[in-house]
Structure formats: structure tokens, C-alpha cells
Amino acid sequence: MYDDEELSAIREAKESWEAATLDPTLDRHGERKSRFATVSNREVDRLYTPEDVADLDYDEDLGFPGEEPYTRGVYPTMYRGRTWTMRQFAGFGTAEETNERFRYLIDEGQTGLSTAFDMPSLMGIDSDDKMSLGEVGKEGVAVDTLRDMEVLFDGIDLAEVSTSFTINPSAPVIYAMYVALADRRGVPREELRGTLQNDMLKEFIAQKEWVIPPEPSLDLVTDTIEFAVAETPKFKPISVSGYHIREAGSTAVQELAFTLADGFAYVEACLDRGLDVDQFAPQLSFFFNSHNSLFEEVAKFRAARRIYATVMDEWYGAEADASKQLKFHTQTAGQSLTAQQPLNNVARVTIQALAGVLGGTQSLHTNSFDEALALPSEQAVRVALRTQQIIAEESGAADIVDPLGGSFAVESLTDETEAEAMAYIEEIREMGDGSVRDGVLRGIDQGYFHREIQESAYEYQERVDDGEETVVGVNAYEIDEDTRPDLLKVDETTRERQLDRLESVKAERDDDAVAASLDDLRDAVAAGENVMPEIVTAVKAYATMGEIMEVFEAEHGAYRERIGVA
């Protein structure tokens, strides 16, 4: 972007500035710290100039919004056309209580629903299982059968709302329930909109919720993608998630690299299944964390789009624009929230949300200030949603497409992030002898990802403990008073009410129809066929979550036994 003569003049001017202006100031006052770095411990320079982006090619590296390489955004008008989808994670207690929260959020202006499930539902077991004791409805909504899904979306038009489901091992069952509910209500499947997290690779890397081993889990994810391409073309059957990788303690670069590697592994699994890349790739979505270092996060999002467009084109032969456009949801960093002085979290979340917007996210969840202490209260949820609305309507951040594009600092950080993330992806590909899919599976088996994340998490905590990393209210600016707000408490009768409904469903359903549907599912699993049609049939017969997932455990083995959960 600059010729050699211009760069030489800028270099000379910088040297003159350093000698005449900077050095005397440093001699008199110094700087606050001897070293400045991001949350990920990436050192940042004092000043960035055109020299730092001397190799930047505008057409190849930046381009224009809505055109390759999509560094500046996947849409030409971005938020000038419409703002990002505003989602707030909601789910607790029974389906009735969560339905009430859904309606509240819609009334407050939320534009998309995001569903949290309790631990038994996440792990594919029923509320009456002995392992569920003490967990029913505690950190999300309990869903055992299609009856719960019917109550959960009572009075909500499935054709009008976009719904996200944050669930993984048992994601195919929840997806089948949503499809079955649409069928019952006469909503065409092709009209369903939403996202299923359904990212099992990141579970084995970071979050550690699983039922069956990695390879059959990957096959099951591929079944959902194949089914979605044919049946629910507006619904995203997977949200490849870096959020939990970052929450486990990774750096921003590791989050980006491991997430994209997982995404490319799913691409290869679909290609092995015989699917055409331009058929399924437009239905892939991603999910990133947004942490406190604003410029690092913006650079991460921009680098993600550029890497994805290049790799989908050059490695996998994608031709359609939609196949090369990385579209993603963002959630502010739960890891950054503090139980101490929780109102400080409002400021943290605002910065993180702004980073997501400046980085070009398609969907955003803002954490509530009380989430380090409990499930969010209505007041905290409203403040979190209002934070997004203020950014959208009052800040001006949504009025300019890629407003930080061209910043010497942001472009330099974007280039560095891209290079370091690609180095990781290439390493993973080499581990798989040229296959990212095999490299990810091998990395999981050999503990590669765990070691990388663990080292980063340990190094960060050391910096906090040493006071090198400031966490306001925790290791600096502390106060000696109780700052806890009023907290949401889950009704202690939740379990009894959920068990009553489950017992009622089991008493009323056709047991022969349930048994027949589960037999058909067993046959499909054993034959290696796509299991989604059989799961839809089973949930329509009111087979339970646990009954369906037991079929997969019987065929593939209960992976949870390897870690002593069962």
C-alpha cells in the first residue's frame, strides 16, 4: 500500500520523533509498565505505522465487505442493513419457567432465542435417572421428551423465531424434537431457522461432555448435517465452537486455530460421506468468545474470515460465495466475570460486546453481570440485552462497515493472528498425514489440545497471581464489603414437577410404538445409516432422551465410563 520511498520517509520521521519527542518523555516520566500485552500475552508495540503493514495487499488481504477474502465482513452493508441477532442464553427449571423467560426476552426486544439445558439433558439421561439427582433444572431447562419441547415453545411461532440450542452429545435428539414439533404444528421444515451447537470435537478438546467415543460422535454429527441439508435448509445443524476452548484457558490464537481445525474436520467428514461442499458448507456456523483485549479480539474475528475463505477455496474446492463466508455467533467471556464486585462485569461485557460488533459478528450474546454467582436474574438479563441495544442504537459502532479496517495496529494484529493460527492448523494437518480430520482425532487421543490449553491457562493464572495481569476487584482495587446482588434461585420443587410430567408421558404413550421406533433406530445404528429419520420417529412416539441415547451407548460403548462418570 506504500512504496519504498514513502516507507523510507515514514521510517526517518519515526526515528526523528523518537529522538526529539519520545525519548525525553520517557526519561522524565517513563511508562506505566515495562511490557504491554493482551489477555493472551501477545506483546503489543507502543506505536504502529505503515511499516508494520508494508506487505499488506489491499485486494488480496482486505478487499471489500461481502467479497473475498471477507476480512472486512461477509455482507456489503453489514449492520447498516440490519443489526446482528441479539440472543440471551435462557433456560432453568422446567419448560414452563423457561417459556416464561423466553416470552419476557421477546417482549424486551430480543431477536433470537438461545436455549440452555440442564446437565442431565446435556448428558443424554432422563430426569428420573439416579445420576440426575440434584441436577434437574439447575443450570438449564430439563427436557426429557417431546412433551417438554411442546411446553417450552408454547405460544411461540417456530416459523418466525430463530432458536439456538446449546447442546452437544444429545443434540440430535433435541434437533429431532424441534423438527417433530414443527411437523405437529404444520410448520414446513424448510422454514425452521436456528442453530444447533452439536460440536462434539470441541467437547473432547475442552468442555468434556460426551456419551460415545470421538469417531462415532463425529459420524453422528455428520448425520445431522446431512439431514439438515435435505430437510431444514435454513437451520444450522452445527455451531463449531471456540467459545469453550477459550473458556478452558486457551489464547485467542489457539481458540481460532483449534476451532477452524474442528470446522475443517467436519468438512472432510461430510466430503467423505459424499456430500458436495457447496451443498453443506453454507449451513456450517461458528461460535467464538469475545474477551477483554478489544483489538486482539477484533483481529481474531477478521483473521478467522480470511483463513476460512482461503482454506475452503484452496483445500476443499468450494466455489459458492456462501461456502467461503464464515458466519459466527459471539458470546462475551464468561471466564472474565468476577464474583467480586459483580457490577464491574457490566463494563467488561460492554467492551467484549463492542469487540464482537467491531469484528463483524452475525449474532451476539451478552453475559449477565451476576453469572459468576448464579443463573442470571431478570434484571441482569435486561441490562445485558440493553447493552447490545445501546451499542446498536446509540454508539455509532453499527453505522460503519469494518470501522477499524486500515488501522495500522489492527491490520498488523490481524496478520500476526492469521499467521500463527495457520501454523497451528498446518501442524494439526501434518499430525493427520494430510487430513485435518485425522489430525484432530489423533490430537484428541494423544492429549495434544489438552496440553496446549493447559499450558496457556497455567501461564495466565501465574500472571494474575503475580499481579502482572490486573483483574479489577480481584487482585487490584478491592473493597471490603458484600457486593452480591439478589440472585435467582431455582425452585426446589422443580425435580418433582419434572418427574411428574415424565411419569405422565410414560403412562400415556404407546409402549409398542416406542419399542418399535427404538428397534428401528438400533438397526440404523448397526447398519451405519443416517439415524436422524429414526430419531424423529422415536421422539414423536415420546421415547425419552435417555432411551434414545442408550441405543448409541449399547452400540458404541459408553465413553463416559472411561472417565468414571457412570
Automatic annotation (TrEMBL):
Transmembrane segments: none annotated. The keyword Cell membrane does not apply. GO terms for molecular function: cobalamin binding; methylmalonyl-CoA mutase activity. Keywords: Isomerase. The keyword DNA-binding does not apply. InterPro entries: Cbl-dep_enz_cat, MeMalonylCoA_mutase_a/b_cat, MMCoA_mutase_a_cat. Pfam families: MM_CoA_mutase. Coiled coil: none annotated. Residues 38-557 form the Methylmalonyl-CoA mutase alpha/beta chain catalytic domain. PANTHER family: METHYLMALONYL-COA MUTASE, LARGE SUBUNIT, METHYLMALONYL-COA MUTASE, MITOCHONDRIAL-RELATED. This is Methylmalonyl-CoA mutase.
